Amino acid sequence: MMAHSLAIPRLKTLIEHPDALAAVACGVLLFCGWLSLYWGWLGLGLLLLCAAYVIGGYESAREGLTTLWEEKELDVDLLMIVAALGAAGLGLWRREYYLIVDGAVLILIFAISGALEGYAMQRTERDIRSLMSLSADTARVLLHGQEQMIPVAKLQVGDRILVKPGELIPTDGIIVEGYTTLNEAAITGESLPVEKTVGDEVFAGTLNGYGALQLRVHQPPESSLIQRVIQLVKQAQTEAPPSQLFIERFERGYARVIVVCGILLAILPPLIWGWNWETTIYRALIFLVVASPCALMAAIMPTLLSGIANGARQGILFKSGAQLEMMGRVKAIAFDKTGTLTTGKLQVVEVIPADGVLESEVLQVAAALEAYSEHPIGEAIVAAGNEPQRSQAKGAEVSSVEQSVREHREEKIENVLSHPGLGISGEVDHQEVLVGKASFVCEQSPFCESGLGEFSQQLEAQGKTVVWVARRNQVLGIIAVADTVRSQAFQIVSHLKHLGVQQIVMLTGDNERTARNIAQDIGIDRVYAGLLPEDKVNAIRDLQKQYQTVAMVGDGINDAPALAQASVGIAMGAAGSDVALETADIVLMADRLDKLVAAIRLGRRSQSIVKQNIVFALSFIVLLLIANFAGNITLPLGVIGHEGSTVIVILSGLRLLRN
């Protein structure tokens, strides 16, 4: 039952990719044709091999002839077809039918290569569908004091729309009435909700908090930030990288040289050296077979596939072999901050009590009140209070805050009131408690200690959010909350520099002070702060002008355009959004940044093996060509040498399977 359930999706995947289906059919027909010839069924064997030629070589022949007709260029696809047909023709002429099998093998190799390439490129449509899920379909428009739901596409500049708590902002706009906090993590990567009031701009795709808003549409919906993100992803994924253009030019140049040389070998020797035409054609066909780039092409794909398999065992998912090779050439790496270099979750990082107050008491009082708040800062304080090691810090013998709140919630927590943008107040055990900003707490607590104020300024200078706690007009202490850096971030940055990465930068929508503090702690070379998605793309482009090959590591929707623009896009597997995972070329499973170092080492090793294989393949081709020109090689020996060099190159590539 299990095998059957697994087979169905694999069959579906195969059917959805015609190139893969053609390669499988070609392989089956080739094997059956070879068996038929081996058993002496000549007619059936030739028929099956003919079918293998047609099915496996149709796409390559079509592309080669299209390129020849429309662009007046030769490519390797057409050269492969010519070499295969030449081998088949010579096999029929000399009744050496194994040559027909050899031609079919050449076609099969290219069919498999084309199927793998096609499968790796079919992601753009899924990326765009994931991005579109961020956009609301309708908006609540206010007309003559009445609410009316209309499609977002029909909104016009000047329309006034209403956004209720918990709803997505349908389009970019300016707040004309209301106050709230917005979760902009999907757009800017900012980990904390951002306070918004009259006059502030809000972006489509961000999530409204607790306050109702009235917005004025100030630009057409198609010009909204989220729509620009979609367009950037489309543009970046359709642009061919320079390496791809170079490979295409090399293939066509190689094909032209081989075809021209083959024609000259078939014509000139009888005219210059008096060779007979049979010998001349025989040598020309040997030339086409031994010069066929099978070994050259096998120098790359088996190596990259082995590297992909090796990476998968280590929790590194490469979506294409080209990106594995590209990793070996990375000269600069750009990191997103929130969720990549940091955990993406707010945590209490420091508690400073006032004189005569225990740290656990500050946490207990604050968490008891914040348990009634849905603000992320409040959740971090409650979580810290529930940690046994924190609640019992400095010798305090108290139960967890969660248990205290649960036991006394009804009779001891009363009159809880949220003060938007300031904090929260209430009564704990019939004593008034204030938790929030310094201005809010100290305004009602005249005995604010100057020492805590100095600590607060120091913590804020480090990019941390400081919460003040007071009870009965007496300040109990301050709590610092921050998005904490991943424990391995400093070590990873050090390893990357040791590997020779020339520039490591941070791209973030967060404020510059927080970003620079984190960058200084972990050794980042350069910081770009306060960025929107399109700004991150521009930063990647600037880096590419300086360092050519640039990797981008991110996890959020706001990182998708930059991931697509980068030479190599790398997403965090566990924390990454669907769009980031779809757009990225490489996924680090389980959010382990140390695998980034392993990916670069694997890329450089694959690049080294590919270079070795290319040198070997070209050298062997040259040796076979010299032997052919000297007349010391027969067609069977040429085929054996050609296929033998291909096997050696493939085995060399499989070395990458070893860790």
Automatic annotation (TrEMBL):
Q: Any one Gene Ontology biological process term?
A: copper ion transport
Q: Which Gene3D superfamilies match?
A: Calcium-transporting ATPase, cytoplasmic domain N, Calcium-transporting ATPase, cytoplasmic transduction domain A, HAD superfamily/HAD-like
InterPro entries according to UniProt? ATPase_P-typ_cyto_dom_N, ATPase_P-typ_P_site, ATPase_P-typ_TM_dom_sf, ATPase_P-typ_transduc_dom_A_sf, ATPase_P-type_domA, Cation_Transport_ATPase, HAD-like_sf, HAD_sf
**Keywords from the named record:** ATP-binding, Cell membrane, Copper, Copper transport, Ion transport, Magnesium, Membrane, Metal-binding, Nucleotide-binding, Translocase, Transmembrane, Transmembrane helix, Transport
Q: Where are the transmembrane segments?
A: 20-53, 99-120, 254-275, 281-305, 614-633
GO terms, molecular function: ATP binding; ATP hydrolysis activity; ATPase-coupled monoatomic cation transmembrane transporter activity; metal ion binding
Example GO CC term: the record gives: plasma membrane
Q: Which CDD domains match?
A: P-type_ATPase_HM_ZosA_PfeT-like
Whether Ribonucleoprotein counts among this entry's keywords is no
Coiled coil regions in record? none
Domain P-type ATPase A span(s) in chain numbering:
134-234
Kindly report the protein's main subcellular placement as a broad class.
membrane
Localisation per UniProt entry: Cell membrane
What membrane topology term does the record carry?
Multi-pass membrane protein
Task: Write out the similarity annotation.
Answer: Belongs to the cation transport ATPase (P-type) (TC 3.A.3) family. Type IB subfamily.
PANTHER family under this entry? CADMIUM_ZINC-TRANSPORTING ATPASE HMA1, CHLOROPLASTIC-RELATED (PTHR43079:SF1), PROBABLE CADMIUM/ZINC-TRANSPORTING ATPASE HMA1 (PTHR43079)
- Which NCBIfam families does its entry note? ATPase-IB_hvy, ATPase_P-type
Recorded protein name is Heavy metal translocating P-type ATPase
Give the species. Gloeocapsopsis dulcis AAB1 = 1H9
